[in-house]
Each structure stands twice: as C-alpha cells, then as structure tokens.
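Archive transcription. Copying these from loose printouts into the bound notebook so they stop getting lost. Printout 1 of 2:
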Amino acid sequence: MASFLTDDFLLRSEPARRLYHDHAAAMPILDFHSHLPPREVADNARFENLSQIWLAGDHYKWRAMRANGVDEHFITGGAADKEKFLAWARTVPKTMGNPLYHWTHLELKRYFGVDEILNEATAESIWDTCNVLLAQPGFSVRSLLQSMKVRVVCTTEDPSDDLRHHAAYFRRPGDPVMIPAFRPDKILSCADPRAWQDYIKTLEAASSVAIGSFATLVRALESRHAAFHAAGGRLSDHGLERTPAVEASPRTLERLTEKLLKGRALDPDEAEAFQTGVLRAVGRMNAERGWTMQLHLGAIRNLNTPARQRLGPDTGYDALGDERLAKPLAKFLDLMAQDGPLPRLILYTLNPAWNEVLASIAGCFEDGTSPGRVQLGSAWWFNDQLDGMRRQLTTLAHFGLLSRFVGMLTDSRSFLSFPRHEYFRRLLCDIVGGWIAAGEAPDDDELLGGLVRDVCYNNAFHAFNIPGVDPQ
C-alpha cells in the first residue's frame, strides 16, 4: 500500500499549500535543542542496520511497544536487531493517532525513499531496502544531516563534560555547526549528599577549581560556562519539575554549600534556596555572554522504580507533572530581573494546561531590548503532536507575537528525527493559511510568507547568534 504522505500532507487550504511550498519547504534547520551524541557527529558514524539508527535510545517507540504488549527483551533487551525491528513493525499499525505513525512514515520516505506503509507484511522488504542504503556513503551521520539541510546541531552536555568531541569535530563544507548546550542539572540534584559530593569532584576536575564554598562552586561553573562559550555554546538548558524560588543571602548560600560538602542533607526549603542561588548565578552568566536560558518545566521522572533499577533513567518512564507553577516561576524570573538584565528565556511546559500561564508570565518580563526576549517554547515531548503544537502556536499568537517565535526543535536522540521540523512547518502553514482562508488575515504573501520563513529559521538565527552559521 502506498503512503498517505502526499505533497500536500496536513495542508488543508490553498493558502496553506502556497505558504508551505513557496516559503517553508526550502528553509534550512537550526536545531537548538537535542540529545544527539556528539561523538557520532564528530566521528561521522555509520549504522549497520535500521534498528541501530532508529530504535536504539528512542523511548517514544519503547513506550508504544510496551503499550502494545511487546516484551522488554525485544525493546531494550538482548533480542537481535532484526527481531527488535520486526516487533516495532508489528506495533506501528497500532499507533494510529499517535505522532509516531506520522513520524515513522515521514522518516522512511525522506531518508530512504520508502513510500510503503510499515507493517508486519512489509517489514522484511523495508528492512532490506533501508539496510542496503545504510551501507552506502551517503548515509553516514553527517550526510544524513546535510540531506535535511541542518545548519546547526546543538547537543546537551553536563558542565563537567570535557567537550572533546566538539573539539575534535572537523567541519567540512556543508556540514552543520555543532555546539554544546550547558545543562547543570546535577548541581541542583542535592537530595543525596553523597552523590552530590561525587559529582562535585567531577566538576572540580573539569574546571580546575577546588570547590569549598558557594563562591568557588560558582567560579567552577563560570569556568565551564566560558569553555562552552569558546566551543560555540550559546544556550543553557534546565530540566525542572518546578521552578525553585527561595531567595537566600550570600551568607546563607555559603552555609548551605558547606552543609552539602560535609555530606549533610538539606531540608526542602534549604534545597530550594540552594537551587535558586545556583540558577540565578547561571542566569547572570547567560546574560553577560548573550546566551539563551531554556527552562523545561513540569516533568516528573523515573516513576517506575523496578524499571529504573533494571533499565536506568531516560528509558520511557516519565510523565506530566502538576506541581504549583505560576507563583514560583514568576518569583524566580523577578529575582533574576533584580540581578540585572534577564538573559533571553524560553519557557517550555510539559503540561499543556500551563501554556496560557507561561505565555502570560513571559509577557511580564519582555523589556523591549530585543524581539521575543522571553517566550513560550515549542510544544515539548508529550505535546509534540498535532493538537499539542496547534495549542502552543495559537496560545503564543494570542498572548505574544507568533512572528517572533524561535520555532521548532527535535529534542531527540535519533539522527532520523529531523522530519519533525517538516511536520511542524506543515502545521504552521496550515494554521496561518487557515487564517487567510477564513478571512482572518490578509492574503499577503510578503507579510505571511515572511512570518513563516522567520519562524522556520530566521528568528532562531538572529536570536542565538551562533558563530559560523549562515543566514538562510
């Protein structure tokens, strides 16, 4: 059976089709948040088969397979790669209505030219076709990125990472720029003082700073922040269940750090005060260097203890959180504003009920110094589907300026995930084209075509100012 992915997939009006084909389709990709392994980019890695490049590390697919009754042996266990792929092929028909159904077929079509529906009957031929292609020169990691017109790959690294793969990356003509994002979440994870102490030793080694106080902890982070900047980094990233917002004096922060360094646990208010102090310090570093600060809010992680013990973190056992959000976030942003100019901020929510809350708070901290300085980020994780993206885009348009939106990202561990940008762009054009078709916006190609191009690439290009990246 031929694929349903026509040239006009998701484009439900003539203006939408025109906006996509004339403006969005040819735009390059600036992917400013992913979890791709930098070693594989630097080494221009290759993959032996479709399972290795497509299923390994993809907890979206793992969750769907578990929901379909697939044994863990065929997901993350010891089954052969082909057995894992066949288990996925049997699952795909059951994912109708899930974005995985669309993503799966977009990826097969865009990378491999496969225009068939994946199911148990077609699995063998698709496996063979894709594996033959993967053995060809045009299917190395960098070639795959070039084929999707990826200009920037932003990986996510801990401050203690030595960035050796970024340093070793020799960029040839046409290769994307690869930069690291600064993610200091482990510093904030102080519930287990012994594990925190172990991490401090790692940070000391990376920064060449002996950490014996809050001041020296900040100095160590500053040293690594500078190293990330030298490697092209222009964004920090923070995964928070809720925003800490307890103000503490310098003396108190020193006392709390001393307590942790002695292996003593902080009570909840003390922990939140310490976390607030660290995040404010990183915010100041970001503002001083012209970076963007990304707050990913509202995930509760690793809910299944037996699964975590068996498989480790980030294996598909996270969910939407529902902690108090508005007041702590507003207070934290206000504290940072009192420290000095805010860095550029992107606020992501895993809980779609918070879209309007975050968008309204963002508007309170715009200061007129640059367009879209504080904004609601793209539909994230569980929201990265048609309804979630539509809700995020329309909320942003209603509460802020869609025309200043920095757009889509993959948030992915897979080198085959970049058609998600196409998915987003088609929906964006369908929304804007729908406004034209309904008489809610002028049929002005220069105005609305420009908006589409800006959201697809130009806004991110200007906002992040990443060295070595070309305009469209």
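Printout 2 of 2:
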Amino acid sequence: MANLYITEQGSVLCKTGDRLIVRKDKEVLLDVSCHKIETILIFGNVQFTTQAVSELFEHGIEMALLSRTGRLKGQLTPPMPKNIELRMAQYERYKDSDFVLKLSKAIVSGKIKNCLALLERFRHNHPETDLEIEINSLKRSVLEVEHRKTIQELMGVEGSAARIYFNGFARMNLSGFSFDGRRKRPATDPINGLLSFGYTLLFNELSSLMDGIGFDPYLGFFHQIDYGRPSLAADLIEEFRAPVIDRFTLRLINNRTFSLEDFFLHEGSGSMHLKREGLKRYFEEYEKYMAQEFKHPVVQRATFRKIFQEQAHRLAKTIRQEEEYIPFSFLR
C-alpha cells in the first residue's frame, strides 16, 4: 500500500462507499479505494469531511496534516489496541542507564556505518570523486562510538561524524545546485530543502508505525524526552537517513529532476521549498523509490517500508528481551 498526498489547495476529501474522493468545485480530482492507502498526507488548505475521517479510521488509515511547505502540524490516528506490555517494558528500559547507553551506541554506530556505506558506494561508481578523507574519518568515528561512556559523549561523536559526512555529500553533488553543508532551520538552498522535506516524510512514517505497534513514540533512548517530540521515532530515523533520504535526494539532484525554477524561498521561514508541480513530481519519485525491491537477509522482496516494520519489531524485541539491537545495514 502507498501514501496518498493531497496538495491541491481548496480541494475537499470526502467519501462514497469505501472509496475516497478528492473534489475541487465540481471536478473529481481523485477516486481511490481505501484498501490501496496506508497513510494520507494533507498539505495546506485542504478540507475533509467527518464521514471521510470515519472511513479512514474504519480502515486503520492515518492522516497527517502539514503546512503547504511540509511542516508537520499534527496527526489523526485511528484507535488501535495499545500494547501495554511493550510500553511497560519501554518505561523500565528507559530507567536502565546501561541499556540506554548500549542501545544508543547501536543507533549512532548504525547511522555512521550507513553514511560510510553511501560514500563508499558513490566512490565505487565515481572513482574520480575524492572521498578518501571523509571515508577514513568516518571509519575512525565508528571505532570511537564504543569507547564513549555517556549520551552526551555519543552526541559529540554523532555531530562530528555528521559534519564529516556532509563534507563528502557536497562532493557527491553533481548537479548545478550549490551545497556547502547541512543547513536545517532555515534550509537556505534547494538541496537542504529537499533533505529537510524528505526527513519530515520519513519521520512521519516512522512515528505512525511505532505508535501503531504499541510503543510510546515520545519516549526515546538516544534522543531524550523533549516536549512534543516523538523521540523514539527520532531514534529509529537515524539509521535510515543516509540510505533512504540522502540517497534519494542525490538521485533527484544528480539526475536533474528539478531545476531552480521548481523552488521558492518562503518569506516566513527563510527556507527553500518545492512549488506545487515540483511537489507532485517529488511524490511520484518518492513512492517509486519506496516501492523498489532489493535483497535483504531476512525480509523477502524487501522494500524500505517493509524494512521500517522489520526494524521497529526488532526494536520491540530488544526492549522486551534485552537482546542486542542490530540496525539496518545499507550494503556497500
């Protein structure tokens, strides 16, 4: 099943039978069966009827409300059986400082290894691109993780590794867009805008998934409690940043999928965002990318969405049984 993205301003989401209809004025823009949808993402000024929301809940479909520029405002979640045993175990593990540190090391190590794998894969395909310094530095960062004794020290390693990695990412940029490092708030150039937008989509998927399994998504381990932030989703996203969003963004920019004319600078935030037609193109490419199958030692006919589920269940098993957590490994 796929995500449904509704970006047409002034449109209305309604339902007839078990089908969802998107209308604008008297025109039907979309007619789709609920059985084909997993999540709906609504951008900006899009209305929806209570009957449509009730139908979504009947089918276990979540709805995310975002601004026109992609800032997550909130989610409507259908009632699901809450796994109280998992949550109780999660609360107990959170009190165990040794467990928290061990799991956090796995999270940081997994993130850095996947960043390293992306650099090494790019170097293999583009031997003319010099990434030796960044690759060797990230290899040292992986070794440093094991010797850190506090979350704060781990954050230092993670932050340093991220800066090194994005130095290499800049050299993997073969487009005409400028990129001199990661800029979050504001994302002042198209590449940073694409990265931030992709991370928002991924974060929303993981947060919804973890809530559905029965976790308390607001109680993280590496990412400590922060009011209003699903910190556990922030933990899980780390291992997927490089292989999912960074790799996808590189594909978009290096294949010249977008030009500068596809972006606009939002006056309020100071960030670069895709215009409406660019957004539609982005969603088409994103869904194709997420549906691509690849080899995986456990998951048959793996896609990234199947891997998200596998890793979330693996994390649940780690919390329940205190087994070692093994992050997703992006094969080099």
